[in-house]
Amino acid sequence: MENFTYHNPTRIHFGRGQIARIAGEFPQGARVLLIAGGGSIKQNGVYAQVCEALRACTVVEFFGVEANPDYDTLMKAVALARAERVEWILAVGGGSVLDGAKFVAAAVPFKGEPWDILSKGARIESALPLGTVLTLPATGSESNCAAVISRRALQEKLAFLSEHIFPRFSVLDPETTFSLSPRQVANGVGDAFCHVIEQYLTYPVHAEVQDRFAEALLKILVEIGPKTLARPNDYDLRANLVWTATWALNTAIGQGVPQDWTTHAIGHELTALYGIDHARTLALVLPSLMHVQRAQKREKLLQYAERVWGLTEGDPEARIDAAIERTRAFYESIGIKTRLSDYPEVTPGTAAAVAARLRARGASGMGERGDITPEVVEKILTLAA
Ligand code: NZQ
Ligand code: ZN
């Protein structure tokens, strides 16, 4: 296991009725920019609870952050925040709203061109303090320091990381997620599953806590994912899904271990090109990536086969094949397709096009060993046809 310094500064308020806790998080009279999406929070009662909790604050609202938050939309929020001299940001919504709010928080005090934060990895010296009310369990954005921003005008989707954008607090009330469509619930399960896999399915480094913790999270998702879809009003199932998705990407299981974020890197290109939901792009890539990288990931694939899927019998190669098939079947069982041919909008030259886009970004060696070249990316997507 590598050395690490572990610190997660996000305070979590978890459970029913916890939105009221926001009141104690802001100084009296604080100027708060409330950032939200297309309006789901007005239909499910979340907005009313937030307004009640913010009664002692001066609130400026910005609605309209879209799924896969768009840079041009967010720059309007940056202008509003500057004009209104807001001191805090409160994001209320899913991962897109939270990520968008993180970008706004970083861009408001940023001296240069904010696009450089995404396109050139420009250093961020500070950000406005940010709190969140999460309404969609999936990304872990409520308790991590990452944000992924799209720029449709340039057909781009880029991520940035900064210690400064960790939320100061996040409210996780599972009841706020009851209004989600089955598609969004499934997306959340599938996204969280992939987050765990990408911090786990590499090579062993004797990190027992991280490994066993990751395996537990995967098993919980396999168990409760389909149940949550079948029983959408079950509070306990929903509460476990919310908490599992947070732990899948709150940086804990990734400490001191090799990681492989190639599935996400390829997935982001597919969303940039075709607008496919984030979680759905991951299911297109992951089974094929496991197959193509099976030699490099052999020991962990066998561990995954045994500990997550209970596959202990027979030839090791057959066990690996079975584990990959179980992974594919799991995504399909929650209604997420795993073949590019399931998406008519995906054109035949996609494998080469994605490889070329990643090459142009300088992503010449991805994966835990740096051996996933653009050529390997093309192979993975060709296998995903
Ligand atoms: O905009 P509204 O009206 O709120 O509707 C949203 C949106 O249409 C709706 N929704 C959210 N909560 C709801 C609800 N509808 C009814 N009831 C509720 N309680 O759901 C739709 C999708 O929301 P979105 O926020 O886009 O989904 P998700 O949470 O899956 O976020 C996806 C984004 O997060 C990024 C993705 O790339 C994508 O841009 N990611 C962020 C990460 C991070 N910050 O660490 C990591 C992830 O790997 C991911 O890349
Ligand atoms: Zn993701």
The number of E-state strands comes to 8
CATH level 1 class label of the largest domain = Mainly Alpha
Write the element-wise H/E pattern from the N-terminal end onward.
EEHHEHEHHEEEEHHHHHHHHH
Low-confidence stretches: none
Write the layout of secondary structure elements.
Blueprint: E1 11-14, E2 31-36, H1 40-43, H2 46-53, E3 58-62, H3 71-83, E4 88-93, H4 95-107, H5 115-119, E5 130-134, E6 146-151, E7 156-161, E8 169-172, H6 182-200, H7 208-230, H8 235-248, H9 262-274, H10 278-292, H11 298-307, H12 316-333, H13 350-360, H14 374-383
Parallel strand pairs: 1-8, 2-3, 2-4, 4-5, 5-8
Antiparallel strand pairs: 6-7
Helix pairs in contact: 3-4, 6-7, 6-8, 6-10, 7-8, 9-10, 9-13, 10-12, 10-14, 11-12, 13-14
The structure holds 5,6-dihydroxy-NADP (NZQ) and zinc ion.
Zinc ion binds near residues 139, 194, 195 and 278.
Could you please describe the fold and organization of this structure?
The chain is 46% helix and 11% strand. The protein is of the alpha/beta class and 385 residues long. The chain folds into two domains: 11-177, Rossmann fold (3-Layer(aba) Sandwich), CATH 3.40.50.1970; 182-383, Dehydroquinate synthase-like - alpha domain (Dehydroquinate synthase-like, alpha domain, Up-down Bundle). The strands form two sheets. The protein has a six-stranded parallel beta sheet with strand order 1-8-5-4-2-3, with helices on one face. A hairpin with a 4-residue loop joins β6 and β7 (156-161). α6 packs parallel to α10, α7 (208-230) packs antiparallel against α8 (235-248) and α11 packs across α12. The longest helix has 23 residues, at 208-230. The radius of gyration is 20 Å and the shape is globular. The model has no long low-confidence stretch (mean pLDDT 98). The structure holds 5,6-dihydroxy-NADP and zinc ion.
